[in-house]
Amino acid sequence: MTSWQDILETQSQSNPPRLSIEDAITLYDDADFNALRQTALDKRRQINEPSEVTYLIDRNINYGNACTINCQFCSFYRAPGHAEAYLQSTEQISARVRELEAIEGTRILMQGGVDPSLQIEWYEDLLAYLRTNHPTIDLDCFS
Fold first, then answer.
1. What is the pTM of this model?
2. How far are the Cα atoms of 51, 60, 68, 74, 103 from residue 100, in angstroms, in the given order?
3. Ordered structural domains, the chain, with CATH
4. Maximum CA extent, the chain
5. Which value, to the nearest 10 degrees, does the dihedral of the CA atoms of residues 48, 97, 108, 52 take?
6. Smaller CB count within 10 Å for the chain: N or C?
7. Which is nearest to 107 in space by CA: 75, 70, 136?
8. Cα Rg for the chain, rounded, in angstroms?
């Protein structure tokens, strides 16, 4: 097994190989946080102008909160039929994506409750609509 120090040394090179899953796990489990942070900072400075920092601009969109799962950590859901349960329309969701596009965002993170009244076609139609009408937006949905 490769040590976390050796992995960071390899990744510090100007053109390192892609980090393997095994090496990533080793770094996660074993690496000194400050050494990992410093290597990441040095790598960013190799790739970009030292004063340049890049960010992803994304948006969380909750398409609905009606859910039957009742996860113990979730205070967001409402039972189907509850007065506070909601489901956004495709146009409402699209309007939120347009707001993201207006600030040059690139990705939506979309999630919501597990609503048994929604058939698979609802999700398929929504994704098809978003891909057609917002082709530059990456979709990270239904986690």
1. 0.69
2. 26, 10, 30, 26, 5
3. 4-47 (no CATH), 58-141 (3.30.750.210)
4. 58
5. 10
6. C
7. 136
8. 21
